[in-house]
Amino acid sequence: MPRVFEYSRLWPLLSRMDPERAHRLALVFWREVGRRPWLRRWVQRMAHAQDLPRDPVQVAGLAFPNRVGLAAGYDKDAYAWRGLAALGFGHIEVGTVTLMPQPGNPRPRLWRIPEHRALINRLGFPSKGAPLVARRLQGPRPPGLILGVNIGHNHGVPPKAVPEQYARLFLVFAPWADYLTVNVSCPNVPGYQQWQGKKEVMRLLVALRQAREAWRRLSGGNGRGLPIFVKLSPDLSPAQLDDTLEGIVRGGAEGIIATNTTTRRPGLDPRWQQVPGGLSGAPLRDLSTQFIADLHQRLQGRLPIIGVGGIMSPEDAQEKLQAGAQLVQVFTGLVYEGPALIPRLIRSLAAPKQPEALAQRRSSS
Ligand SMILES: Cc1cc2nc3c(=O)[nH]c(=O)nc-3n(C[C@H](O)[C@H](O)[C@H](O)COP(=O)(O)O)c2cc1C
């Protein structure tokens, strides 16, 4: 196999490009992988994604083929998910999708911090809009893959109309998605995180559950349950988290995704404090793991947790499971470590756990 195609050799090229352009290029590549079986086989060989172990796990009534998923934001418009699935992901979450198309924030809005294996983004939900994304979800699906759709409301929608937007998004995606995620934790759109409040999140969940009932009736009682997950920010204070959780449990969500990016800058050079946006990648890891542990303690098993934030290695993923997550998701790790990270994670999480090794790692960090 020509070594020039190894990710470590491609990275110097990619890292010199504007981050959004490089991402766009990666998506075009993955879309082609989804279209061409020979390219898919080649990528699988290069990334060691062949003959992955089966590691089925039941979460929120869904049968996930393994514990590793792609986090929201990587394939916002469902352009490339069929190709990305070649890496063995058990689930892929597309979006955030808004009902109507919108451009997001002005550029520049995405920064790399390679010395910390981190990204800062303030994209602000650029989206091609729900109808186009729903069309892209139709058609053949890689066997076993669970497909989630992360939904958000359009900029400038008055708060009174927001629950209605979520209900409409539900109805657009219900026939094509396996689960929906309500994204109330984006730090890049003013006023967005207010929807993490108890009353607010309940209002959204009630609207979504009503839409789910309507859809069940419309489909003659045959509609699947379609679980609803809520994605949270790691920046919630303990009191805010208690408040949100009450709303989430009473609102009847089926799971929690923790976490989104942080507005904090742990361990980063002060100049990054001036750059507004959400931080992801290695510096988010411990913040997110601690948040999951707190969440797990509060929930006492009432809802499943999907752990995301700074997973750059199999050990990081194991820590998320140890903290109480049932599944994990990755975004920034894929950017810095390359595609081979995904099969590595799947293999390591499917292998029998080694608590001593984990305990040792904890005490030495
Ligand atoms: C460029 C970028 C765009 C993102 N867009 C979204 C999004 O649209 N919706 C969402 O829920 N999360 C979004 N996220 C957050 C990720 O899904 C994930 O929660 C976060 O990056 C932490 O995981 P990581 O450290 O593995 O990247 C985005 C993250 C990045 C880096």
Question: What's the level 1 CATH class?
Answer: Alpha Beta
Residues in β-strands, percent: 15-25%
Judging from the principal axes of the Cα atoms, what is the shape?
globular
Uncertain residue ranges: none
Structural class: alpha/beta
**Alpha carbon gyration radius:** 19 Å
Main beta-sheet annotation: 8 strands, parallel, barrel
Could you characterize what this model shows?
This protein is α/β, with parallel strands linked by helices and 365 residues long. The protein has one domain (3-280, 334-350): Alpha-Beta Barrel (TIM Barrel), CATH 3.20.20. The protein has helices at 7-14, 19-35, 37-46, 81-84, 130-137, 162-173, 198-218, 238-251, 285-299, 314-323, 332-337, 341-350, 355-364; strands at residues 57-59, 62-64, 68-70, 91-97, 110-113, 118-121, 146-151, 179-183, 228-232, 255-258, 278-281, 305-308, 327-330. Strands 3-4-7-8-9-10-12-13 form an eight-stranded parallel beta barrel, surrounded by five helices. It has a three-stranded antiparallel sheet with strand order 5-6-11. Helix 7 (198-218) packs parallel to helix 8 (238-251) and helix 9 (285-299) packs parallel to helix 10 (314-323). The longest helix has 21 residues, at 198-218. The two termini are 37 Å apart. Flavin mononucleotide is lined by residues 71-73, 76, 95-96, 110, 119, 121, 123, 150, 183, 231, 260-261, 280-281, 284, 308-311, 330-333.
